[in-house]
Amino acid sequence: MGALNKNGFQYRENTFDFLLKPSLENDFSTINNLPGIQHFCRVENNLMSIRIFVTGGTFDKEYDMLTGSLYFRDTHIKEILELGRNLVDVRISTLMMVDSLEMTEEDRQIILFNCQKCKEDKILITHGTDTLAATARLLGEANIDKTIVLTGAMIPYKFGSSDGLFNLGSSLAFVQSLPKGVFVSMNGMIFDWNNVKKNRKLGIFETLD
Hints:
The protein is α/β, with parallel strands linked by helices and 209 residues long. It has helices spanning 29-32, 37-41, 77-83, 105-117, 132-141, 164-177, and strands spanning 3-4, 10-13, 50-56, 61-63, 70-72, 90-98, 122-126, 147-151, 181-186, 189-192, 197-199, 204-206. The protein has a single domain, classed as 3-Layer(aba) Sandwich (Rossmann fold).
């Protein structure tokens, strides 16, 4: 069972001795036999819960008042869920904390691998917006038999005026109601993985058409 916060709402957050970093040169069979992979995927009532994979992005950036720069410390997802009085059974796993412009092909393979191997069939991924569509395409082309929703934020949550809280709540609803497939959820809109792009001039997501 998960821990209960002060408001009585349930959350689960996994901690690991290592991150799964599959080599692009090797198949995943070796990694699947590593100690810890069973712990990573062992959950109860898998089909009733949602796995949240944290990868970083603007969603989780902090502001350094001394240097004026943005940086990563810890994810804010648990705090956001508590503020939203979430009652959905979720399990939070931090895969990485990176700006999506700095996300490598190996990083995307880590995301893909964990989506394939976790037991839940409903997955929500928080991701930087700049290359979110690229990760969605990788997952979509992998034809995973699960419902996967990717979301992000244009403004860091800690700024107090972020769209992140709304996007996370919308995405939790979408991942429970959409059929199996890969989708992008931003600002109340839902997009198919193969028909979405970020409009950098307007700061919104839109279809390719």
